[in-house]
Amino acid sequence: MTQQAPLSSEAFPVPAAADSTGLYIYIACPWTPVGGGMFKVADYLIQSQAAQTPPHAAQLRPLDSRGAASPAFSLWVLLTALVKIIRGHLSGRLAGVHVNLAARMSLFRKGAIVAVCRALGVPVVLHLHADMQSFYAALPAVLQRMTRSVFAMATTVVVIGPVARHFVIQALRVPAQRVAIVINGVPEAIEPRRTPQPGGSQRVLFLGNLSDLKGVSILLQALSKPGFDRGRLQVVIAGGGDVAGYQAKARALGIDEFVKFEGWCDQQKTARLLAASDVLVLPSLDEVLPLVILEALANGVAVVCTPVGEIPSLLTDGIDARFVTPGDVDDLAAVLQDVLKEPAQLEAMGRNGRALYEQQFSLSRFFSSVARIHQRAFGVAAQPRDCGAAAEEHAL
User: Fold this and answer.
1) What CATH code is assigned to 9-187+362-378?
2) Which terminus of the chain is more solvent-facing, meaning fewer CB atoms within 10 Å of its CB: N or C?
3) Does the structural domain 202-359 have CATH classification 3.20.20.70?
4) Where are the beta strands (DSSP E) in 121-208?
5) 293-303 residue pLDDT tens
6) Phi, psi (5° rounding) for residue 321?
7) pTM to 2 decimal places
8) How far is Cα 83 from Cα 79, in angstroms, rounded to an integer?
9) Does pLDDT of 262 surpass 50?
10) What are the sequence ranges of the domains in the chain?
């Protein structure tokens, strides 16, 4: 997942109508690029709310739960967040807290937030963004009990798809009526799509943190296989991580002439890269539902990915994506070559993917779904940007 630049408090001015009597909802997550996709999802929500808060609505506010510095500093950030929650509750203006949760240390930090909210009587929506099954299974019994208690304290648990919902209900024992599926949404495309020319360049894009878990080594090995038209092929690998290490691997494989590393990309550069690409490739070994896939669909870019996490429950192989076997270098090479040699297939996948985006992954649909959850859990919700029934989607 590409990252966005850290946001200052000035990025979220208090709406004119949110005076001293206005209600607000905290959106808790690491409000820095450390938060990855979780941060982007929360950021999209706040960007999409109305510029002014009507009397019957609440204002969404960011609540940083981690910071971007050392573990010691992250503890200070967490304590600051807890103080803000206490002050908000005492003022009578804090309607609730929407806690965005992943695995590992995120679970323990957010568990502290949930516990404090429970003690104060502040309702909590717990939004699970990660595949916790293997992490939870490896925990000792005492920490498994603690994990279940964190989820039990939430008013509502939000998950991204049916796989996560089944886990939360069966393993974490949350009553089914308190678990809601909300599929993530992303903004509209903001750059015009390039028009491929017959016999022209073939542009493949990888967007994400550079790691073997994301399949970067597998991708480089696949690109070194015979069968690619190297004279036309242009591959861009964008994202933070061990850029120098993967550049060295590309040189060792003899593919550095057509593989370019862009490093970390902000939201605007990501949009430009997507608009200039024919195929997004994401051969991850472990995912939930990567936002970059949804962003590719929004841009009408064909997707080649692994059917992991929630992906196969939402995308259809051969219709709006092509699936490849996780970890299989030869399969990835064969599928990439197949789609690159068939412009009609690329066009159909891009068109079908765009239609799926409009049906399921638009930002207006996502905002409305979250607003309904907030209305039920907190008794109040934020208004979309146009202050109407649905958020108006345009460039963020």
Assistant:
1) 3.40.50.2000
2) C
3) no
4) 124-128, 156-159, 179-181, 202-207
5) 999 999 999 99
6) -165, 165
7) 0.82
8) 6
9) yes
10) 9-187+362-378, 202-359
